[in-house]
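Design a sequence for this backbone.
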């Protein structure tokens, strides 16, 4: 998924390891930094590894199971967050969202929108797990379908509400 201008150096981190692009072709992190566009000692992006910022966003009920949602989770606080924007831990019934607005000028302009989308994505994972589909159906672990549900659900619910359909 290309979120930035075609000919600009692009940094994309969408629910997975950091991927760097130049002219729409993937390049290594080292190669990107060596091009002189950024230095590996740049101050932006460092917040993701700092600690002490994790915040509880709230508790939600997913098919009778309580999950706690945390945001601004650093890799120092939860090492499993390395390379992830969001993660659902089915063993502890917790959803974690990384520090997404880390000051990187290459970020999208409204990171709150992206954070909300990431939380929706992780909630979909939790629903699929709690319903048993995560273990029994390969499609339920497919990131594309989970993203589709997370991205399209606000639009679906808006139409349902406009049509006065009972939710």
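Sequence:
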């Amino acid at each position: 998924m290309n979120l930035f201008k075609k000919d600009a150096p692009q940094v994309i981190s969408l629910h997975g390891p950091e991927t760097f692009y130049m002219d729409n072709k993937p390049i290594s992190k080292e190669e990107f930094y060596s091009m002189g566009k950024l230095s590996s000692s740049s101050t932006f992006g460092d917040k993701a590894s700092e600690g002490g910022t994790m915040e509880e966003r709230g508790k939600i009920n997913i098919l009778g199971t309580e999950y706690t949602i945390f945001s601004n989770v650093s890799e120092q606080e939860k090492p499993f967050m390395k390379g992830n924007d969001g993660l659902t831990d089915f063993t502890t019934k917790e959803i974690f969202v990384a520090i997404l607005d880390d000051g990187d000028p290459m970020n999208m302009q409204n990171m709150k929108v992206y954070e909300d989308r990431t939380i929706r994505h992780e909630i979909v994972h939790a629903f699929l797990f709690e319903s048993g589909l995560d273990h029994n159906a390969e499609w339920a672990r497919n990131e594309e379908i989970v993203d589709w549900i997370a991205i399209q659900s606000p639009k679906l619910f808006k139409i349902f509400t406009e049509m006065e359909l009972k939710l």
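Residues 53-162 form one domain.
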